[in-house]
Amino acid sequence: MKPTKEQLLWMYETMVVSRRFEEAIEKVYLEGKTPAFNMASGPIPGEMHLSNGQEPVAVGVCAHLDARDTVTATHRPHHQAIAKGVDLNRMAAEIFGKATGLSGGRGGHMHLFDPAVNFACSGIIAESCGPACGAALSRKLQKKSGIAVAFLGEGAANQGAFHEALNLAGVWKLPVVFVIEDNSWGISVPKSEATAVARNDVRAAGYGMPGHYIPGNDPYAIFDIAGQAIARARDGEGPTLIEIETYRLAGHFMGDAEQYRPKGEKEALFAKDPIPKMRERLIAEGHAAESLDTLEKRAEARVAEAISFARDSEYAPETDALTAVFV
Amino acid sequence: MLDQPTNERRLTIARAMAEAMQQEMQRDPTVFLMGEDIGGFGGIFGNTRGLFEEFGKERVRDTPISETGFISAAVGAAMDGMRPVVELMFVDFFGVCFDAIYNQMAKNTYFSGGNASVPMVLMTSTGGGYSDAGQHSQCLYGTFAHLPGMKVVSPSNAYDAKGLMTAAVRDDNPVIYMFHKGLQGMGWLSTEPGATVNTPESDYSVEIGKAKVVREGRDVTLVGLAMGVHNALKAADRLAEEGVSAEVVDLVSLVPLDRETVINSVAKTGRLIVVDEDYHSYGVSGEIIATVTEHDISKLKASPARVTYPDVPIPYARHMEQLCLPNPDKIIAAYRKM
Description:
heterodimer; A: alpha/beta; globular; B: alpha/beta; Rossmann fold; 2 domains; seven-stranded mixed sheet; five-stranded mixed sheet; 12 helices; disordered N terminus; Transketo_C/PFOR_II (chain B)
């Protein structure tokens, strides 16, 4: 499956939005955290898991989705949320803990919920899988259109919830696609020391569904395979498991010294940064550099607007903490 | 902070936990560790630092993110003659592996009529206050203490942290060892300095099931554990300025619960405030109050009070979370209402 020109440019621009967003969040996150790094300080407190480098996965998959489709995301959700069309201003405001945020400040960066585009999150590993099955089952039972995509990391593929959900999806032929972002690190533990098989796509066989492995963090290849899997789900042919090689250019969370990384790994990953790589390819395919510059500027402007919106928004009254437990 | 006398050796809780495990591993070859990022990384909260380098990857085992698998495996290894210490990185993650904990670890001894034992330690981090939101900030003390068959401890300082870990490893029963992130001595988690105290180098045990009166007083008893003890001590300092003499009881253990120390203290002061960062309802605070009132309600000069976490999931935004957390102001306000 090949992307149209429009899809390609959307993918590129969305990757740039995601990257600029992470860069902006990183900058704000560090405010108030120097010279001594204290997670509790600054305009954005708590843990912060950046997705720099993993953008191709989000855009290659979400290019095939629209608002009615469900996405369940991970503790590292920003690129997935942006590609799914979560409101960027309200997402930024949530990360700042403001009243205008998606959840009025109750959820924060690991718990982004935007029902308008069927986007949900969990900070618990592999807990994207079961809910995606449920959303897919609901569509099937109600004979409504739309499919579900669960994103997870390669570390989550060793969690019971992953295996149980895959079996459910397989036995019930659910319209769901499981997308593993294989950045090869579960915090400090490499995939090779945590996973009994080199590639998780082979595990699909145990659950009666096709499995694919996509090397190279390549948005074109991701678009192709994800498009086939999503079309298959839409056609009622059942679930697919896809594992995608991607790169975590940042630490597990901000403040991670990353001493576990082999020497030179980061440099090698940055040399393969998917965003400049895609830009080069687009130019080689005949897209004018100026038109890409325009997209990049537009992306920067969107991010700047979202950050300003978040900064300028008010905090909710603190007593809002006691509301929204029940509807 | 004042300079410390040179004969003191002040350790953080993280360091004290690691030292206890190190000494137990040196002493007993059946002790080994399993958990996520406890190897070369030294534990996310620093409590296994240096152990991988000393004991290697067979005895300090990084695991996949498979809590049901490795905690169940610890149950099996413990029943087969070893003394595993396993880490559940955040207590909030118990949801993915609770069967291994409360249906296996906690019950196998009883099911076997006491003929089998499960000598393992499950250490897990608790507590919020640094905006990590509702899946990484809970305490859940009451959840674990409620279910029979496992001992539950939570240190408020490094001295107790070391002695409790030593006692937990040597105990022939499963022990849940809950350490509060805000007491770990890691600056990046906004640490409470009062938890970093003089800690002897030689090995020693702190008795599981024995509470400590950490400050004597006459007018009111403040009962807490872990971070609650520090909030109570700060409140006691400020109450003292007003001429109110508060006694502070550090529970140290939830199971077994040292009811006698609490009862004796309240018999003396006549007033009880329980400080608990766990949810308000159905938890430790209710249990402590019931303990006192069931024993002899006539000893109370006022209705008991509790300063707890309200019954809501933990919000992310700093000001919302701070509204919910126990603090010295709330303890003093509770006293004033008595």
